[in-house]
């Protein structure tokens, strides 16, 4: 049986019309995703921001760790980066999908 590999399309705004013609997997920009959590944190009262266990602070911490890992990997080969992303970044990204 042939395995289905969806086309990956990155959009900065969600466009439903793409789905009428192509079966695809929507991937998002990390900067846009991070910005939404940053905006959420700024929208709550200052007294509530001190809660380090809220959704937005935890997500922003995970983004910081992911960005730090990417910075450390910049001089590695593509294969080395892939292996490290699978080992270190992937669990953090999976955690972000459950927030």
Description:
The chain is mainly alpha-helical and 99 residues long. It has a domain of 69 residues. The protein is built from five helices and two strands; from the N terminus they run βαβαααα. It has a two-stranded parallel sheet. The termini are far apart.
Q: Termini separation (Å)?
A: 35 Å
Let me know the average pLDDT: 80
The biggest sheet, with number of strands, parallel, antiparallel or mixed sense and barrel status, is:
2 strands, parallel
> Radius of gyration in whole Å, from Cα?
17 Å
Overall 3D form: elongated
Helix content: 55-70%
Kindly estimate the percentage of residues that lie in beta strands according to DSSP: 5-15%
Taking strands numbered 1, 2, ... along the chain, how are they ordered across the largest sheet? 1-2
Order of helices and strands: EHEHHHH
Helix count, DSSP H or I runs of 4 or more residues: 5
Number of strands: 2
Q: What structural class should be given to the helix and strand makeup? A: mainly alpha
Instruction: Indicate the low-confidence ranges by residue numbers.
Output: none
